[in-house]
Amino acid sequence: MSTRIDFTPMVDLGFLLITFFMLTTTLAKPQVMALVMPDKDIKKEDVEPVKESKVLTLLLGANDKVYWYEGITDAKLDSTDYSAEGLRKVILNKMEKVKGQFGLEDYEDFKTKEPRKGSFINVIIKPMKDSRYKNLVDALDEMAICKVRYYVILDVSDLEREFVKNPAGGLKFNVEEQIQAATQ
Length: 184
Known about the structure:
CATH architecture: 2-Layer Sandwich
CATH topology: Nucleotidyltransferase, domain 5
Strand order of the largest sheet: 3-2-1-6-7
Oligomer: single chain
Radius of gyration: 25 Å
Structural class: alpha/beta
Helix content: 25-40%
Number of domains: 1
Distance between the termini: 83 Å
Shape: elongated
C-alpha cells in the first residue's frame, strides 16, 4: 500500500481556475465615455459667437433635478428630470424650435431640406455642487441619444445659483463674463 497522493486532478483544477479568471477579466472591459475638453489657452478672438436662440443651458441640481433655460436675455427657469419625457423631450423640443429658424446654409441638401444631424443647438451643461456624478453621465448620454453635436461642460456661476434659488428675480449677467468663465 502506497501513501503517495496523486496531485494531477488538483493541477488540472488549478489550471482551469486560472484560465477561467484570466478570460473573465479580459472580457470585462471598463465602460468609458469619450469626452473632449477645450483647451484652457483660448483667446477671445478665437471664440466663435453663437446665436442666443440656439443655446440651451442645463443646470444639474440635487435630487435628480435638471433646471434649464434658453438663451441669455429674459431667461425663464424651468425644471425637469432625466427621463425620456423629461430632459430628452426638452432637448428635442429645443431642436425642433430652432430648426425652423435656420437658413438654407444650415442644410446639407437644399432640395430635400435634409438638415445636418445634431447641428441645431448648443447645449451648456453646468453641474451644481449638490448634483451627482450619475447626473452628468445621464446628461451626456442624452446628448448622444439626441445627437447634439455641440455641448460644453462649465461651472455654474453665482448668478445662476441665485437664479435657481429665486427664479422670479430673473437672470441678468454679462455675456463677457460668460465667455471669460468658459475660457478659464
